[in-house]
Amino acid sequence: LVKNNIDLFVCSFNPAATQRFEEELLQKYLLHNENAEQREIIRIPMVATNQRHQKHIIFVLDQSGSMSNSWGGVVAAYNKCIAQRRQNQNESDLVSVIQFDGCATVTVSMTAISQAPSQLGFRGGGTCFSPAAEHARQVAMSCPATHAPLVVFMSDGCAGDASQAANTFSQLNNHIQGMSGNELELHVIAFGGGASTSQLQMIAGSSHNGKLHVSADTAQLSDIFVEIAGGGNVGDVLEAEIGKRISEAVSDKLAL
């Protein structure tokens, strides 16, 4: 590469995890005895270098009776989200799962992402949001200071206690703001045609960092879960950065 004057790019999904490797590689390349022009390796972080990478991902999943035919797809989407985080070198992440119908249960509690179960049971029942929100609040408040909570709340229905659930998430957001100065990362997914987007939007609005997603089917749900994990725009970022470098190189040549 040095002999042929080829530009070398290092693209990192998690700059914090690969920093030492990158610095050693850059130094060896710069000091190589055939690198007379002192060409440097170009580093392209795929995410912001100041981003807090360690996440505590809290899945809050609707397992009411109406979800029975789609539950396999929900579990597949959950697994794809975890796989994407691991592919992006986020092995320090923690995972919790809260499953709800008329009540709510914590089925996975602050488990290392590498140990997160691939299968989730199903019960079926009615739909209440508030118990699930309260469990999510308690789990998130137990999150270690090294991790930022990320809540993924998914439902295909509506409930009579949506305002209470929104208030609970608002309390959690206030707590996180007081502790870290940041807003709660809250992703709320309206699944299928029967979901109340107005109620779920109200829950998403509990945080300025909240977002409502709409999913028509489990295939779209998987795409949303992967996007939340940080895998939706990697190709676009890489293409833009390489295009920028080529444009700069052409400009330099023309200037000569």
TrEMBL record:
InterPro entries documented for this protein: VWF_A, vWFA_dom_sf
CDD domains: vWFA
Record domain VWFA: where: 56-228
Name by which UniProt lists this protein: VWFA domain-containing protein
